[in-house]
Amino acid sequence: MFSQLVNVFKLRIGALIAITAIAGYVVTPGADLPAWQIVALGLLVLMSSASAGAFNQFVERDLDARMSRTCKRPFVTGAFTDNRLWLWGVSAMLLVSVVAAGWLFNLVAAFHIFMGAFTYAIVYTVWLKRCSVFNIVIGGLAGSFAVLGGAAAADPGLSPAAILLATVLFLWTPPHFWSLAIVLHRDYAAAKVPMLPVVVGDAAAARLILVNTIILVAASITPFFYGLGWVYLSCAVVGGGYFILRNIELVLQPTKEKARVNFFASIIQLSLVLVGAIIDVQLAGWGGV
């Protein structure tokens, strides 16, 4: 049962989204929140992300049944009944997370947390995924809103570093998911989901992924010029360089195996950027940088 809950609420990606929110808070000069409020920030973002994830699986249960990667999800197998109580439940989760964010922090933070869930659940899942090749491009704003929500908890006015980090999240999402879409090309084609590799082919998609990644890596370096230090820059350069290298390999050999490696390289790149930002600010606060 626990593994099914992790699956339906997409808690793995939710945990990453929560970390992005904390990174947004850390890089923003402003309120010095106690540890329990920082933990609460992460948990509230996790809750809102989980509500959107469960809504996504509820709505896409017909698509999931046609794809080998998702055909064993709880709504497909019948482990969870696809009745409207789920919709009420996930709506209540989102409401609690947004209201609590407004109470603990401010209305701007609550707005961004709500918009992150709304973008993934409604804009991406309902409006775009089945009909537009730009589905994941616009859907990438969900991660950006998490960064802005965390930043707003420190200062509703937001800082340049936080806005740039949100931009990094926006640019990161397409190459991350397009790499996965190359791996799952047949699944998405069978489900008639217009992911980029299905529409333009794997080779063309690989070239567009490389272009996107170069822009992403360039954007990931810019926070260094707006308050972050050498630790962050080192992590951004190392992670970005590794990601570009794997992208080049994918362009030269647009295979499922290379796409899978590139998919994991994107996670390494983002993890280094987020961890680098958090460590950099903490060291600066201790007088170490």
What does this structure look like?
There is one protein chain. The protein contains 15 helices and no strands. Helix 3 (35-59) packs antiparallel against helix 6, helix 3 runs parallel beside helix 7 and helix 9 (141-154) runs antiparallel to helix 10 (160-183). It has two domains: 1-158, Orthogonal Bundle (Tetracycline Repressor, domain 2); 159-289, Four Helix Bundle (Hemerythrin (Met), subunit A) (Up-down Bundle), CATH 1.20.120. The longest helix has 30 residues, at 256-285. It has helices at 2-8, 11-26, 35-59, 61-64, 74-77, 85-104, 107-128, 135-139, 141-154, 160-183, 185-190, 196-200, 202-221, 230-252, 256-285. It has 289 residues and is an all-alpha fold. Helix content is 78%, strand content 0%.
Helix content: over 70%
Rg: 19 Å
- Return the structural class: mainly alpha
CATH superfamily of the largest domain: UbiA prenyltransferase
Number of strands: 0
Strand content is under 5%
CATH architecture of the largest domain: Orthogonal Bundle
Detail the poorly predicted runs: none
Ends distance: 46 Å
The main pleated sheet reads as: none
Tally of domains: 2
Produce the secondary structure layout.
Elements: H1 2-8, H2 11-26, H3 35-59, H4 61-64, H5 74-77, H6 85-104, H7 107-128, H8 135-139, H9 141-154, H10 160-183, H11 185-190, H12 196-200, H13 202-221, H14 230-252, H15 256-285
